[in-house]
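Example record used in the benchmark description.
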Amino acid sequence: MAVKKHESSLRLVFVQYLLATVLALITAAVVPYVPFSVGMQAGLYTYANSSEIQAKDAEAAIASAHPFDPKQGPASCTYVFLSESRAVLQSNMGKDEIQNAVGYLKGTYAPSTPDDCFLMIRRSDGVCILHYHIGSQYRNEWMQRFLPAPEKLLTAVTVINCLFGCFLVTSLFVRKLKRHLHPVLEATQKIRGQDLDFEVGHSGIKEFNHILASLSDMKEELSHSLEKQWRMEQAKQEQTSALAHDIRTPLTIIRGNAELLSDSGVTGKQQEYVFHILKNSKRMEQYL
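Model output (structure tokens):
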């Protein structure tokens, strides 16, 4: 069996698969950041910490404004203005949100997630608490309402890209292995069907070529064995035919003499003996 000069090992094939998978994962993780960055530069959504920056930038103006002016606070934040006795003076928060803000002021409430933040601003006439979330937000109202948060959308697209990249790389390498494994499968099928008149192919993988070399040797040994068996069977058939011919000759003589004896006027008992001789000689001829 001829073996290709340029062949690679299974170890190299799997190293290539590993490197291709890593490259696909890196590409799948990096590619979504390009349109994300472009959208950020185009002003489609804000930076993750933009609300925090706006809240801290407005802190001094809120603390010094007399009277309290809610317009000093950023639009991305909700607020509640409390008197010294913790009575709600002004707010655009919901009822539960106000309770959380008051609890935060008293130290009895802590946000459940790091992206849920409160900023407490002391004033001479009370306390203002701003509530905001760390995370990007769409500037378009429709996008903000119907689309997932930019970070979640980016994460989802990255995960989908990684899964698709792994699937694509795996599919390509499976097709490659099937192509190199095809000569092995073809040889085993032909040997199983005792079709030994074929040339064993070759593969581009060293380990598969070792298997093909073994199959080639097996095919030759099996061919010699079947040829030897066929010759033995042929000789047995010839011997059987010769033996049948040798037996048929004296059997014909026995039958002929029995027929002559039957026509020579034998007695009734003798006629019965002759009948049995003729009957069994015919049966022996049928056997032969």
